[in-house]
Amino acid sequence: MKTLLSAVAAALVAGLLSTAAYAESLVLYTSQPNEDAQATVDAFKAANPGVEVEWVREGTTKIMAKLMAEIEAGNPVADVLLIADTVTMQRLKEGGHLLSYKSPEAAGYDAALYDADGAYYSTKMITTGIVYNTSAEMKPEGWQDLVKPEAKGLVTMPSPLTSGAALIHAETLAAIPGLGWDFYKALAENGATAAGGNGGVLKAVATGEKAYGMLVDFMAIREKAKGAPVEFVFPAEGVSAVTEPVGILQTAKNVDAAKKFVDFLLSEEGQKVAVKMGYIPARNGVALPEGYPARETIKVLPVDAAAAVKNSEADLKTFSGIFETN
Amino acid sequence: MTRADEIARSRRRSAPAESDAEGGSGFPESPRRFLSRAGFGPLRFLFGGGEAAESRPPQTASAKLPNVLARALSGVELPAMPHVTEDGSLKDSLPSDGRAGRALRSLRRRSASGEPAWLLPFVLGAVLLLSVLPLARLAGAGLSGLVVGEAARLIFEPATFAALRNTLVTATGGMVVSLLLGSLFAFAVALTDVRGKLILSFAFMLPMMIPPQVTALAWVEMSGPASPLLKTLGLAPPLGSPQPLYSLSGIALLLGVQHAPLVFLALKAGLAASPRDGIEAARLAGAGPFRVFRDIVLPLATPGLIAGGAIAFVSGIGNFGIPGILGIPAGIETLPTLIFSRLASFGAATFGEIALISTLIAVISAGGLLVQQRALSGRDYRLIGHSGARAAFSLGRWRIAVETLLSAVLALVLVAPLLALIASSLVPAYGVPLNFKTMSLSAYGEILFRQSITLTALKNSLFLASTAALGLLAVTVPAAYLMTRRKGALANLIAILIEIPYALPGIVLAVAFILTFVAPLPFIGVSLYGTIWIILAAYFSSFLAVSLKPVMSAFMQMDPSLEEAARLAGAGFSRRMRDVLLPLIAPAAGASVILVFLIAANELTVSALLWSAGTQTLGVAIFNLDDSGSSDLASALSVLVVLLVIALMAALEFFAKYLPEGVLPWRN
Fold first, then answer.
1. Probe site for chain B from A3, A24, A32, A34 (most B CB atoms < 10 A)
2. Less Cβ around it within 10 Å: N or C end of chain A?
3. What would the pLDDT profile of B367-383 be if each residue is shown by its tens digit?
4. Min Cα separation A11/chain B (Å)
5. Which pLDDT tens digit goes with each residue over B145-183?
6. Which one of B470, B473, B612 has the shortest CB-CB distance to A77?
């Protein structure tokens, strides 16, 4: 009995020590895929020896839910957020959840790419275009091609209920004359599905369950380089874009480490790490990765950020109503 | 009413007397009967065909005594030690015929037999904390959710009804598949002379031990247009073919495979005890094998079939891993995944909603458990003359055919998906066929050497599993001692309270723990939500029953006279525990630790709702990797987890000879 109790006590102490260890480290909530998140963290740790980082990955919508549940419970765990879109960040800022920090690295960026009060900074540009399986009959060139009869039942897209990029994408296309929500209704009638995140779309198209998908650029281009049978198109009408902003939470326990993390992501070195992973960098004067057309040929569609902040809930409902997902 | 039935019945009536004549076991009542009275529902066969063991007279020390001596000793009440009690004053102030008075008298009688005063309050306290408190909190939240409008409005949304329908459809379909597979294997292993029974049973138990999300992942990799396996064989379906498993029937099929071992266990225990001499008599009287099967075997197997079916149904209702991987891409929600997605789109009414939905799951499960309880009550296996080792049906020429069929089923439900899993962990990208040129170990490299989540998850799962496995012994050893030494309503109540959290789906328990611990703890002012401790607490509650079972069997099979002798020699409780009881139950305690460890290390449903930064478990890590589109990494980690499971089961098998009867589910 005594040995048993001491064994349990030892296990408990070990557990306490390991939890204590987490308390010392910077906690990052991110929506990047696991491999990218790990590579980002590794590069940051190499540049800032001695800082430990603990990170969690989920789709933007889900990671926000997790954070909100924690805030509700009075125990927000995250120090830094690195999520898909500025709209979500803006909403957090308006809710008073973000810390203002003026990063010295901001000088290398367009003023449009960061919040004037320093609540969040864009770190890259991620556009959403069309991915297709190389054995597909039709080679799509624009968004309208996805509602053609040739694509019936063969289209899939990420759900805004999981992915932040997908929500912005829907809000962007919905505001474009000639597309709008009617385009999404036509897609639904054509048997398109919307579920999960971008990872699932890549899997469905690369594995041939579906032929066409709406997908973030870097995933498709990177997977093609690895040998997967996929191609990526920047559609003629233009692409939507998110900028993967980083922000520090008001409740952060490790503010210094968090500031270092923001500075690192914005620095030349940090931007090169992103390029190596296949992302379009946000910083001026950093070249695009392999496999992309020249920066000026990519037509980015505008999005009304203020309207997006206001209408997110309603837009989610509209989308769910069209695709009957919950 | 057939002749065989009559024979069975008359035997049943005379059973107790018979067993006494065979050398009394020294038990005041048969342990089996105690178990069924104590309401040991799923437990009774989930971890160990306890009945199979108990169908034989328990092998206790006294059974080895010459019969005459044993008979002479049985029925001799040893005098209790003179014992000064301190509650005399209490006794006088209580009505002597009231329930409390009786309880107190029995308490005094117990304490007179040397049970320490702290034992009962300790066990009761632990059970209240782990079982009653969270479930009461859930029931409260569910009720108030119904009263306060917002959540109630959401529960009547079409989405909830669709999820309810999907849950019932998949769980029912899964139950049918489980019954087919489970009874095929149970009849073959228990009644025929097929060879390799141990390896068949061991392999057939594996699907239950492998985490459901790994099963789902493996099957997805096995089928569909991009299956590396089918691509390599050139059998892949054309582009745009839907993945057949992303459907209601796909979910039902996999639930069936996952829970078939439960039916197998429920049936095997009963079949192992079928009356060989009855069968033989019937055969001599000219009944054909089919007639014997219909009139003798089937009536005896019916309760097991109903109970196994009910358990498979309840497990299907609460499964999260399979509908999570197969249903979400197809937009099919079941109640557990609905809870998950509601929590993942957090809003003001979320806690009320998930409380309501999980209350709904709990109600359906309770219905299933009641059916199972009814089926098992009144089962008496002591109708056996000899349940000899000889098979009831020798298959003769058909043996090869049956063996081939069993192996083919195992190849389809176990070997092929695992091969597909390994194949998909070796391809560099989606949709690439596997050959020697494309094969790479980079996924394993990434998982083992780069992803910090692997290490975090491994550390957490090992910590949680070992702490739960060892820590639970501190509760289950005293509880098992208490329940074997003390009969009556209180022991039954404790048994039922221990049973409930394990019988209820994990998702219900997880929600109960969120509701209980989301508010800051009293006195400390810290919330456990988002820490590893809330997961640990939920594990303690969830696996209490798993931990108790082997320890309970060991206490059951122990001759009470051993402890009695030590007590008469003046040994105190702790001394008796240390020198007499613990050494005897040590092997069972070891098995209990490994079983809990095995299940806890692979757990997903509870931790899927409770994890946070730095507290991911292996189950969560696999789910999350697949979700982020890195299914090569998810597959690689799954392969490692399956290897861990097989290693642990092999370790248990290695220690089998030191364990009490009926602790290892795959052994007869």
1. A34
2. N
3. 888 887 777 665 544 44
4. 6
5. 666 666 667 667 787 888 999 999 999 999 999 999 999
6. B612
